[in-house]
UniProtKB/TrEMBL annotation:
Naturally occurring in which organism (per UniProt): Thiocystis violascens (strain ATCC 17096 / DSM 198 / 6111)
Iron-sulfur recorded as keyword: yes
Annotated CDD domains: radical_SAM_B12_BD
This protein's name: Fe-S oxidoreductase
Residues annotated as domain Radical SAM core: 198-410
MF terms (GO), sorted A to Z: 4 iron, 4 sulfur cluster binding; catalytic activity; cobalamin binding; metal ion binding
InterPro entries, alphabetized: BchE-like, Cobalamin-bd, Elp3/MiaA/NifB-like_rSAM, Methylthiotransferase_CS, Methyltransferase_Class_B, rSAM, rSAM_horseshoe, rSAM_sf
Length: 476
């Protein structure tokens, strides 16, 4: 069979602005291509790389003529995923069309349209492999676990059940040979980098585990994983990292070091193998404060920076979000990481209810921190969480999925929407002054400086313009 796996291009300027800083590999499609096996001709179409995505899609369908199309997408891409499915159906009526990814998992009913043949929920490797095998054998797709059919065989009870995470040992090595790795780069931060080190190096994305033990109110992960963190076999992760051409590795785990024993074993195994890369990892303040020696070990083998969810500048807000930490704990973790030579990417959230004083409080708090990289989102619970269900009556847009990028408020703002957007964008602009590479005056080539200036402008403009994605009646 000919199999085409598609990653859509976002339509929101806020997302496109963020991608100017960071465009990561289509890792999920690499996994699916791996389970499809060598007996099929598989192509990956990353429409994020296309200047004219719909023309690129049309030409690909005409020339490749796939028998099976798989499409992934987040909630803010759901409308685009459905349009892609209808486009494929219009070109190739007999082609089977399967959708998966985050949105298919948390709100599969939204994909219950005629153009879609099957909806894969949860980790898609095992069910997609069964879909490929069934179609290759001329069988229908009924009875496959974690797969919903939009037709008359739809079952509401299956929709209400969260899919189970499989054994991480079953995760295959992704088919990186199906994309040009030179396209995938990320702005790289560190406390100190060699002179002329590129600001946008080529980056590979690696997943070492799935799940998280925490139960933050805004996050879908606890519901998907049942509060369990499950790492992959150490040897498999080491083999994957050792095989990478890229010298920079971005871990896509929900939390890299929450399982301390796994963290030590992986670090020691990478060192014993002689693998030397630069790493970016995700962690929590509670983990850093509990296991500083583990972070020290990772710094020794190449950890440059860590994502740390500060979320809010007050303990009261952290408590409401069930974050399980405190402002003081966040600051201790920041100091510990920096003392180890590990740069920090601090993530903050704002609430739609923020007024001028709350924005000013967050801005002043960030300005008072030592050098670090910051990002800002709007606190937006994921579909499928109790917090999302609780805010249904307050939603002020017809299709909240279209704006669910965690940068658009889905409920009314205290400030006029246009003012909210401009103030929110100014936070991100202020935070640029804190970036370690800027504070330390890291030397970079002219092309890298131009690229970072372009990315900064695109990101800032994208945030400033979020109000334009709403009906004009809501702007002021």
């Amino acid at each position: 069979m000919r199999i085409l796996l598609i990653k859509p291009k976002a339509r929101l300027r806020s997302v496109l602005g963020l991608q100017a800083f960071q465009l990561m590999e289509p890792l999920e499609l690499g996994y699916l291509a791996a389970v499809a096996g060598p007996g099929h001709e598989t192509h990956i179409l990353d429409l994020r790389l296309a200047a004219w995505p719909w023309l690129t899609l049309d030409l690909t369908l005409r020339h490749f003529r796939p028998d099976l199309v798989g499409i992934t997408g987040y909630s803010h891409e759901a409308s685009i995923v459905k349009r892609i499915a209808r486009t494929v159906r219009g070109h190739l009526p007999a082609t089977r069309i399967v959708v998966g990814g985050h949105h298919a998992t948390v709100d599969p009913r939204d994909y219950r349209i005629e153009a879609i043949d099957a909806i894969v929920r949860g980790e898609g490797c095992a069910p997609f492999g069964q879909i490929v095998n069934a179609l290759a054998a001329g069988r229908e797709l009924d009875g496959i676990p974690q797969v919903l059919r939009p037709d008359q065989s739809w079952r509401d009870d299956e929709e209400r059940q969260w899919p189970q995470f499989p054994d991480p040992a079953t995760l295959p090595l992704p088919r990186r040979d199906l994309w040009d790795t030179r396209h995938y780069r990320s702005v790289w931060t560190a406390e100190h980098l060699p002179r002329w080190h590129p600001l946008f190096p080529r980056v590979a994305m690696v997943r070492t585990s799935w799940g998280c033990k925490m139960k933050c109110a805004f996050c879908i992960v606890p519901h998907l994983c049942g509060g369990i963190h499950r790492p992959r076999p150490v040897a498999s992760v080491v083999d994957e990292i050792a095989s990478l051409e890229a010298e920079h590795v971005y871990f896509s785990d929900d939390e890299n070091f929450i399982c301390e024993d796994f963290g030590w074993k992986l670090a020691d195994a990478l060192a014993a193998r002689g693998v030397r890369k630069r790493y970016f990892a995700w962690t929590r303040a509670t983990t850093v404060n509990r296991s500083p020696e583990l972070l020290r070990r990772w710094r020794e083998i190449g950890l440059d920076a860590a994502f740390l969810g500060f979320e809010f500048p007050t303990d009261a807000e952290l408590k409401r979000a069930a974050k399980g930490g405190s402002v003081a704990a966040n600051e201790r973790a920041l100091d510990r990481l920096r003392s180890l030579g590990i740069a920090v990417h601090a993530a903050f959230m704002v609430q739609p209810e923020y007024g001028e004083s709350e924005f000013a409080r967050l801005r002043d708090y960030v300005r008072g921190l030592p050098p670090l990289q910051c990002s800002f989102t709007v606190c937006t619970p994921s579909p499928g969480t109790p917090d999302y269900l609780a805010m249904q009556s307050r939603l002020w847009v017809d299709n909240p999925h279209d704006l669910h990028d965690c940068m658009h408020p889905l409920t009314p703002t205290t400030l006029p929407l246009r003012e909210f957007a401009l103030t929110f964008a100014e936070l991100a602009h202020t935070a640029l002054e804190k970036v370690p590479m800027r504070v330390n005056r890291h030397l970079a080539t002219p092309d890298q400086m131009v690229r970072v200036a372009f990315a900064s402008r695109s990101y800032h403009k994208g945030l400033q313009a979020i109000y334009r994605d709403y009906p004009k009646a809501l702007w002021d």
